[in-house]
Design goal:
By secondary structure, the chain is of the alpha+beta class. It contains seven helices and seven strands; from the N terminus they run αααβααββαβββαβ. The strands form two sheets. It has a five-stranded mixed sheet, with helices on both faces. It has a two-stranded antiparallel sheet with strand order 4-5.
Length: 238
């Protein structure tokens, strides 16, 4: 409806702009305007303005569509640039950016986990099986976390989880749920051998005044402490 109204609007303007001076001129007795002139003054500007406005409207719609397509393409490229191609989680840069955008004024939770004995999985079963193991861990994390939580692959076999608005008690509870979910995950190896997965997990608080990079380092230290103490466990930063 709007596309039809626009050409008609300009037709009316064009015809009115032509008829107005003719109407004024016709008031003078010495300037009598024959009827054909009136017909021509309506038909010619009406037809020209209609087709010109239609053409301009079509071009405007094409440009608007191209602009929408460009915005969508840019958004898609941004998502691709922030996505880890193997696990389809956020990569490290995407994880940090999304966390910074989601930080609240309250204490949040941060979890860093590392898949135990991952190098031996690659050495014994090959990198393809190692890739399957990482994908299985990513799937397990998706089942253990809340919809509002942010998860990303920080690099190698290390994953980060940001828990907006989570108290220390809730953070520990979710970390245990993550640990258990990973422990229950198995990956098929050679000759149908099942590869059991476990993860060492470091947990810390994210105070509003703390730098995210420092919080990641604190969680990393807690995670390495979990590895040192026997793996497949949670260590909470002091």
């Amino acid at each position: 409806m709007l596309g039809t109204r626009r050409p008609l609007f300009w037709v009316i303007i064009s015809v009115a702009a032509t008829l107005l001076p003719l109407s004024i001129m016709s008031q003078f007795p010495s300037l009598e305007i024959p009827p054909p002139y009136w017909i021509v003054s309506v038909l010619i500007p009406a037809s020209i303005s209609y087709f010109v406005s239609r053409k301009l409207l079509q071009q405007s719609e094409i440009l608007a569509k191209l602009n929408r397509d460009l915005v969508e393409a840019y958004a898609m490229l941004a998502r691709v640039a922030e996505t880890d191609h193997l696990t389809q989680l956020l990569n490290r840069g995407g994880f940090i950016r999304h966390v910074e955008l989601s930080r609240t004024s309250s204490t949040d939770g941060l979890i860093v986990l590392d898949v135990d004995h991952f190098k031996s999985i690659n050495d014994r079963f090959g990198h393809e099986t190692g890739d399957h193991a990482l994908q299985s861990v990513a799937f397990a994390l998706g089942k253990a976390l809340r919809p509002t939580d942010i998860v990303g692959r920080l690099g190698g076999e290390e994953f980060g989880i940001y828990l907006p608005g989570a108290t220390p008690q809730l953070t520990s509870k979710i970390a245990e749920r993550v640990r258990r979910q990973v422990e229950e995950t198995v990956v098929p190896g050679f000759s149908r051998e099942q590869i059991a997965l476990t993860a060492s997990i470091g947990v810390t608080r994210v105070e509003p005044q703390l730098n995210l990079g420092d919080c990641l380092r604190i969680a990393d230290l807690a995670m390495y402490r979990a590895k040192k103490n026997g793996r497949n466990r949670i260590s909470i930063a002091a």
